[in-house]
Amino acid sequence: MTKVAVVFHSGYGHTKRVADYVAKGASAELIEIDSEGNVSEAGWDSLSAADAIIFGSPTYMGNVSWQFKKFAEASSKIWFTRGWHNKIFGGFVNSASFNGDKAVALISLQTLASQHGGIWVSLGLLPSNSKAAQRTDINNLGGSVGLLVQSPSDASVDEIPQGDLDTALAYGERVADIAGRLT
């Protein structure tokens, strides 16, 4: 059985909801980075045992949250031993704006995976970009490197557009499927 872990930080709960959908699609374990940027020892153990790791973060000021950055820097201990070398990786980011410089934050997740010697899984979905497109459509934000999600700043966690949540589920399934093929 392929083991997938979703490690994420969520500032206001929106990114956690997305992580829940990604994890459901991947049948993955959720590992939350706390408000101080820490992961439990059990969380680190789960990440080491996983065949695939999916990173998730809100996009703040054009990059991942400082809590996620602290986690990323703490992973350097694993980098020194090549502990995540050849693992499968994916990632998702969330912001209040349609763009919000999410691509920059997503590339930082991809770069972290690459520094660890990982194999990155793209979103693998065509964009929903016709005039008839709706926010309920799959990949309505047109991502390709990974999952992009938009949560309006005045929306509750229950108001994340359904198309983004459906895309999150599909992305989790894709990462797990590819990890299963390669492990």
UniProtKB/TrEMBL annotation:
Q: Which Gene3D superfamilies match?
A: 3.40.50.360
Show the Pfam families listed in the entry: Flavodoxin_5 (PF12724)
- UniProt KW Cell division keyword: no
What cofactor does this protein call for? FMN
Q: Does the keyword Nucleus apply?
A: no
Cite the entry's keywords alphabetically. Answer: Flavoprotein, FMN
The Gene Ontology terms for molecular function here are: electron transfer activity; FMN binding; NAD(P)H dehydrogenase (quinone) activity
Q: Where is the Flavodoxin-like domain?
A: 4-146
* Signal peptide residues on this chain, from the entry's feature table: none
Where does this protein have coiled-coil stretches? none
Q: Which Gene Ontology cellular component terms are annotated? A: membrane
Tell me the superkingdom of the source.
Answer: Bacteria
Q: Which protein, by its recorded name, is this?
A: NADPH-dependent FMN reductase
